[in-house]
Specification:
Subcellular location: Cytoplasm; Nucleus
Number of helices: 48
Organism: Malassezia sympodialis (strain ATCC 42132) (Atopic eczema-associated yeast)
CATH superfamily of the largest domain: Leucine-rich Repeat Variant
Oligomer: single chain
CATH architecture of the largest domain: Alpha Horseshoe
Structural class: mainly alpha
Function: tRNA nucleus export receptor which facilitates tRNA translocation across the nuclear pore complex.
Shape: globular
InterPro entries: ARM-like, ARM-type_fold, Exportin-1/Importin-b-like, Exportin-T_C, XPOT
Radius of gyration: 40 Å
CATH topology of the largest domain: Leucine-rich Repeat Variant
Family: Belongs to the exportin family.
Amino acid sequence: MDSREEQLVKAVEIASNAAALPDANLVGQALAFLEELKQSTQESWSIGWGIWTAHRDDSLEPKYEYAPRLFGLNLVDDFLDRSIHDSPQAVEALTFLQESAMAYMQREFVASDGEHGVVFLKNKVAQTLALLMLQTYSLTSSYTFLTAALSLCTSHPDEEAGLNVLTTDLMLRVLHDLSLNLGSDVTLRSVRGKDRLQRDAVVRDEIRTHHATSIAELLWRIIQDSLQALQSPDASTDNPRRLNAHTAGSLAQVAMAVVGDYASWIDIGLIVSMETVSVLYNALDSSHAPLRYATADTLCEIVSKGMKPADKLSLIQGLGLTSVIGQLESSTRGQGEVHIELREHLAKLVGALCTELCKIAEDAVGAEQDTRDAAHSLLLTFLPLALAFLADEYDEPAEQVLPCLHMVLGLYKKTKRQAESMGVAMSAPQTEFVTQLITLVLQKLKADADLDWEDSSLVGGPASGEGDDDNDDDEQLVKFYELRKQLQVILGAIAAIDEPLVSNTIHALVLNTLAAGDPAELPWEQAEVCLYAAFCCAEVLSSVRGNKVGLGPHSYVQVPVEPGKTRNVRQSLAVYQALPPNTLGELLQHLFRSRISAHAHPVVQLQYFECIVRYASCFALWPDLLPDALAALLDHRGLRNPHMGMRRRINYLFYRFVKDTRTAIPSEFVPQLLESMQASLVVQAVLPDVQPDEDPLLKATEHAGAFDSQLYLFETCGLLMAQLGHMPDTQIMLFKAITQPLLHQLQQSVAAFGTDATNLQLVLQVHHLILALSTIGKGFPDYDAGRATEPAWIEEVKPVMEQILLALTALNRFLIVREAARGAFARIVASAGPAVLPYIPTLIHALVHQVTEAELVDLLNFFGLITHKYKENVRSVMDDVFQVLVSRIFSFMNQGVQGTDDLVRRSDTERAYFGLVNALLTAGLDGVLISENNQAQLQTVLQSHVYYAENGEPVSQRSAISVLTRLVSMWGRRDEKALAGFEQFVYDAIVPLVFQVPAKPSFDRTDAQAQLVLAELSALLKTLYTARGDEVLQFLSTVYLPGAQCPPALAMELVENIQSLDAKALKRYLDTFIAKSRGV
């Protein structure tokens, strides 16, 4: 054995067993050697081919194991695919490989057993032979290799005639790979470069010229011989090379698939003729099921071939598939799973036929009118087949025809528009098709009675309440959801053609279902589809109408339309209540007045709640419907449902329903509603099971759980109580009734933790209670300073704030408690307003020494928001906390940065700091910076802005410069608002900054971020001139610029431009000035 071959075989053996070898150095050497071979395939390909073809001296058995042989063949593949054109001996190498490949195939597949029938080995060598054939057309003008290879299909080691199954199977694999390489696969073709596409086109042309006929003849012979063998009683398997009933089916299947490969790019006359159509029919009716599937798929490829419209129409007509498919459809219908796969392939074929006919029918440019009319007529013959497959009891066939049905509806939409423009209607057959289609679509929306709905998203997720609502759905349910989405799209397309047909049909479905018996006793799948059809009705109709205002009272009544005007959808509720209901309104009245909400099945119950939430606006129109809906939401079907997964979803739906209907809920209902909710408002924190290295508090709060859905109920309490502003005594009573039990629990939990500091369940309980209390405030409207009187409930929020602060002070070492308290203040201050502000200093002192840098950023952003919103009201608060905040900010900003995460976090801190100062200045609270409390650190604050303006990241630079610009505008003027000593700071630090920042070598004038910084600097320079006038120009021209070695002429030019240009134009000049200063 050649030493290189020996080394390769040994190296592959070592690499394949690397985990079992103790010598890591040996493994590394083996891998390095193999990598070297892969990088030098111009030399190593011959070693690889030698290893692949080597056989034992005393037999035809391969000499080496699978692993080294496959590695060797990969070297050949790489050489043929990537490196052969760079080889100085490319033609010689190609000739050698062709001769050796023929000898190998003769020995291994004609005379022997074809790699023992191992499929992956046959696939691999077929891939290599396909690459070899491609290069034959690229590097030589002799195209005999493919002809010689094809001739092996009838070669035998003896005098036997007919196909050799082993060689034929190999050549079919080669032909398949060859076609894929040449771009018969659209996906592969779309990712190839221009040069590769041009090469493939040339090779396809050569094959069409020299080999297409022989390839087609061979393929049809294989299929015909195989069909005959399938009918032959001789099933002898003694000779693996002989075609018999045992081997014929799979061989014909592969041959038929290869016909499909080549149909897209060789002459259609070689694929479709009187003889071949007969063969296709016979194959479709074969006893070998996979052959039938392959034939249907090949027919798809044939009818989808790119052709001129008239030629394509003639092709489809010539195939005469209407009756053939019709017979197969009727004979396989309703036979359970026996023929389901065949029906799926036939449905795909019908989809392809309808799609192609639609393309012809709407091609006004490439097709004559007669051709388009004929396509319309022919399409009508296939549509009953499409409907038959849509009606299949299994979903797979239906899924195959949905895309073509959508395309047909798009065609009919255009046809109807054109017909109406000429004063005529759609044809009766087209109208009948659309009517039949919507009936089938609504039938198909129904779930199977045996659908596995338990613990699925159909009922809100697992009964335990743990896990994601929809990630646990099984494959069957996921496919059902996807089918429903597609069917809803079809409904929308039908509505675009005939909107009343959709609304009337859904109306009839709902009313017929409700009239079929007691709605509460209907089969669950029948009740559910009734609700689902109603649920999606508005969405379907809105998609057609282009409704931009959403569902409202106008959606359910017959709004009169004056000629030449659009419907007025913004009238008062009383106007709409006086109008008769439209089709959707009638449907909903019947549905919501029925007993369907009393259905015992969880899927129906949840779909009912989804439905009332979608149409919540109709309850304002007909408030008499409210009591039944609210009763269902509050009893065992809703908030008291024993199924935790359903409760999680219903909590949210109840919140949504109340939010959308709260103005229609009578005030006298509110106490009763809140009382009914009491049992659902009990907070009970549960620690999750954790591994020894896990933090139970972090795990309990990192994902939304049952408590997060419970928070919707607390917000709902706030929404309901907010409606009682005209009844302050009742509002206060109810507010106390909800909050006092929670406050008592909070007080008890904090006290209990004081005696048992290791009990983390108490910490989680405190976290939950703080969030629950603060979320109640979220339900109240935002604070309105313009109101004549303050809402009564705001006074009662003070004990809530006090108790939250006590809990925070006691447990501020826990991150989840700090986050809960910070979030609580953010929520409550939005609705309670200035009443909360006095508590903020205590909040800060409880937080500031415990917070992480990320928490501090959130805290600073919170202060920025309240400063912007409450302005003068926060002056005293900010005066109290500013020094503490700034000290904590600087403690973080002075720490070193390690890694990208730290860098991002530091950038956030810088932006939050500058944002806070900017918010103070914008709110007119600059006095906070120079108050008695903060005067001592003013210089540090100013210098920090100068430092980051010069040395920060571009975003921080811009923020810092922007603050300095504001300060110059406020304190730098020569008037009574000027700050003593600030003038000197302007000339010592701020003016030099304008020129030092762009003078840095790291400042890239061509960078977009640098240009934004330059814009801030020009605005600062212009503000300096506005504030100080000629004084700053004199300083620049006589002191600073001469000291910076700026040429006098350039300095004078700058001074003149500062005077005459606005900030935008000055920015452009400053760019030029910098370039000149750098000598660019």
